[in-house]
Amino acid sequence: MGKSPLHTRLFRFTALSLSGMLCMVAAGCADNDLPQPKAAAAAQMDTTPTQHPAAAPLNDDELRVTLLGTGSPLPSTSRAGMSTLVQTNKLNLVIDAGRGVTTRLHQAGVSLGQIDGVFLTHFHSDHVSGLADLWMTGYIPPLGGRQEALSLYGPEGVGNIAEGLTSAFKNDADVRVADGEVKPEATGLSATEFTHEGVVFDQDGVRVTMFDVQHDPKGAIKPSVGYRVDFGEHSVLISGDTIPVDNIVKYGSNVDVMIHEVAEFEDTSALPTVYAHHTNPRQAGQIFKTAAPQMAVYSHIVNGTIGIPGVSNEKLVERTRENYDGPLTVGEDLMSFLISGTGIEVHHPSNI
Ligand SMILES: [Zn+2]
Ligand SMILES: [Zn+2]
Fold first, then answer.
1. Which ligand ends up closest to the CA of 81?
2. 289-302: per-residue pLDDT in tens?
3. For residue 20, is pLDDT > 70?
4. Under CATH, which architecture does the 66-351 domain have?
5. Overall pTM > 0.85
6. Residue 37 pLDDT more than 60?
7. How far is the centre of ligand 2, averaged over its atoms, from the C-alpha of 241 (Å)?
8. Which ligand has the nearest atom to the CA of 225?
9. Near ion ligand 1, which residues have CB within 5 Å?
10. How many Å apart are CA 26 and CA 54, to the nearest integer?
């Protein structure tokens, strides 16, 4: 007799109830011996090993950058919130943790428990709202199994965020510890704050330098920083949210990969407030021309909003080309850049 979805659901519910004592977490409650309705079978595909380059080991001298989220505050299925993964053969560093960072890391095949540091550029929610998810899902044994606190780095205020999240989500840590699922030290979120620009991380040959940027004409949005990551001869700069400032060129001159934010609408007179808080493609072109990165990459793409049309990727490039004719890529979620002695190899997510 064929099983109806209702029958299957009831059966699964009963089986799960009986096995409740053994079930530490939902994801750990394996019921593979039960008949699988179609939706569950499809969901299971997310547990198969990924073919994404970020899941592959790196050579000693390679640096890999993966765009986890390239979007803006606009809730989008194709562009998750701002987040960038920087990897060496020893470290996985995440710069900004916008909406969807946990899902994108999972899609990239990077263990949520193997994140060695999260760096925040500023505290607008589109750069922070995925942090709680990454922190807590990372300590769930089958999904990450992190054994120690997640390390958070950034300008003044990251301590406040760590404290606030710890307080807001205290029950999750408490009940998982009480339930014997995780050790107390795994549930920590430890913050290290820096009041001035300079090197904020130096480990296993990776140096992260924080520098000031400016997110609005008055400089009201503080702190606002960008980061440069150096590893051997290789380097990547992440601009953070900024209007054009000298520091991008100062810290980004001749970097291998310059990841820069951009905002553009079809009608360039639309939303002057947005333009006053971001960098348009003509301005970005000027910055790229001066800084001369090996590869310029757009991420944090504010490209239209509700009721205000943006521009196509082609148009974005065309408008950048008014001032810059070097290498340029319009970022997409899960796009990867492998920086090695032989140059920069771009992996497009559609080819994965
Ligand atoms: Zn912002
Ligand atoms: Zn933003």
1. 2
2. 999 999 999 999 99
3. no
4. 4-Layer Sandwich (3.60)
5. yes
6. no
7. 6
8. 1
9. 124, 241
10. 26
